[in-house]
Write a structure and sequence with these properties.
homodimer, alpha/beta, six-stranded mixed sheet, 12 helices, 12 strands, elongated, DNA-binding
DNA sequence: TGATTCGTGCAAACCGATTTGCTAAACAGT
DNA sequence: ACTGTTTAGCAAATCGGTTTGCACGAATCA
């Protein structure tokens, strides 16, 4: 009644374990006829290699991990979860087609026991500078790739989110739709997307003669903090007629803030965000956002990680061109 | 430079591998003094047991899986993801504190190779009758627990979602808020929550003399199908003045349908849903929903699974009492 | 013909833990 | 003093694969 082992299969096929192993791995040539016979019998008796035994010998666990350094359930909560989980869903499929399991790493809590997880590699979603997760895994010798560059660690393979290009696209759209004084609201953490966005914004301001207006918010504050802070921001900078708020939870807060101040969107103030999740879609009015192609990005990240694991050169890749999703919040 | 093994540790501590193993597992007594020395040295040399080796010997992978039989990215998409992922987030933490990894199983595609995943146990979220995932894993001898009973498989340990009680609570609230003819919109799949909800609804109708009005929608149709179908439903049953729509994506569709027909919520028609996710919160108007305590439920599910794995008796448990979250959509 | 290669397959070592059976010493009870 | 029991610890078998080194026959080559 026990699961058949390689020995059972070898015996049934009248060959040695070695031959069976080679037949499956292809690491040495075996007679095609023999191979076929082995495969047929394997089917019949329902043989599946024991992962643990493979792992023990090869050192590969057959597992990759997905981690976000964003607070998992706190903070922007369901919203950021959306972002992470869209990636998770695709990554899970991509992993499985490569015969790997995808496991989830909840937010890094000091002293967390990550011992349970010994992945062959890790995908980090939008890590920040000196992210402890990066340090933990690289210290363990586990290959790491990130979605969005790790600031200061350009050596770590990553899927480039093109945040600069995204920012420019959004800013130019805002201007084309009639805005002349555009403000920027980002997170206070040092994530690459924020840094690139800010840099591009400042450049854009210089080019167009806009006086920069930046607001940086602690991510853990979430929507509530944003609605409060943006209200204050709009009071201080009463001249603003548009906001680019990449973090969608903050954008939700901005909508509330505008409403509280009696500002109409888009008549008095235009608003655009980045991640095109439920928040952007269900907002009143719906928010102009950016289609980031998260599915493709997740696929790329998994592919990148695989080649990093296989020891190949894992050159950073660029995500597909982001695309504007025009909605009422920036209607000209 | 290699990772230290149990032999290295044994040698360093001047004992045998056996003693080291026992010192950690506690399966046999070792002198407290010896144990302390071993632990101290383990710390120093950074010893961690090799999971693969443990797995091979014990048959435990140290991994549990979370699967939803709901289409993962299709269908209700981000919305259902919300439901699943709130559970995933908590379950991941709960697993890790038990020194287990949580891995994600994307939707079951025919012929999927789930070989990559050989978990010690599986949590299924709202499975339906004859769910292939149930059959797959039970066939493999992997313990299964579910969030929401598997219809027809009361023998499988589960966290009872109390969908009947939830339905009654919502229905009574709708009536108390002034509705007299309440309709029900559920999914066509045979999930326990739908079945219980419908049964309770019918009973409620008998008790209160309401003529039942049920609509069942294919889940894969998502919000779009719902908005279309609910519009038709409302035309056919022009007398309805309230709807209970447990699936939040369908509830979103219902909102659209009502708007299209010029019906005001809640003045002309009241609307309540179940999962209190982004959709309910961001809807216009915001929807009355039910706080299901998904975090607690996820915790319970993990606990239940652990005892099922350890061979203990895993009695079904009941989720915490659901609570109404009153919002504008059912304002009296 | 003898040397060399190639194709095919086997036996045995190995990966790093857990677990079983055993020994030797210390201790207790009569 | 003798038996019985506990205590502490070790050696070796085991889990199920992968990988290395070698053997043997057939084909190729000089």
């Amino acid at each position: 009644m026990k699961k058949p082992t390689i020995s059972d299969l070898a015996q049934a096929a009248g060959v040695s374990k070695t031959t069976v192993s080679h037949a499956f791995s292809g690491r040495r040539h075996v007679d095609p006829e023999t191979r076929e016979r082995i495969e047929k019998i394997a089917q019949e008796i329902g043989y599946r290699p024991n992962r643990a035994a493979q792992h023990l010998r090869t050192g590969r666990t057959g597992m990759i991990a997905l981690a976000s350094s964003m607070p998992f359930s706190v903070a922007a909560g369901p919203s950021r979860l959306g972002f992470l989980m869209e990636i998770a869903a695709t990554a899970a499929v991509a992993s499985l087609t490569r015969n790997m399991a995808l496991c989830l790493i909840p937010p890094f809590q000091s002293g967390t026991q990550l011992d349970a997880i010994t992945p062959d590699g890790v995908i980090l979603v939008e890590p920040f500078q000196d992210d402890p997760l990066v340090q933990y895994f690289t210290g363990l010798g586990v290959p790491v790739v990130s979605v969005g560059c790790v600031p200061g660690r350009e050596d770590i393979p990553h899927v480039d989110l093109n945040s600069g290009a995204t920012a420019r696209m959004v800013l130019e759209h805002l201007r084309a739709s009639g805005a002349s004084r555009i403000g920027l609201v980002t997170g206070a953490q040092r994530r690459n997307s924020y840094l690139e966005t800010e840099a591009t914004y400042r450049m854009f301001c210089v080019e167009t003669g806009i006086e920069p207006a930046c607001l940086q918010l602690d991510e853990t504050g979430g929507e509530d903090l944003a609605s409060e802070a943006v209200a204050g921001f709009l009071s201080r900078r009463g001249d603003l007629d548009a906001l680019y708020v990449p973090v969608d939870a903050f954008a939700s807060g901005a909508v509330t803030a505008a409403a509280a101040k009696g500002l109409k969107i888009p008549q008095n103030i235009r608003l655009a965000t980045r991640y095109d999740g439920l928040r952007a879609k269900l907002s009143q009015p719906p928010l102009t956002a950016v289609e980031l192609h998260l599915e493709a990005i997740a696929d790329q990240a998994v592919g990148l990680l695989m080649s990093a694991i296989d020891g190949g050169i894992a050159e950073p890749v660029s995500a597909p061109q982001p695309q504007l999703v025009l909605r009422e919040s920036t209607a000209g």
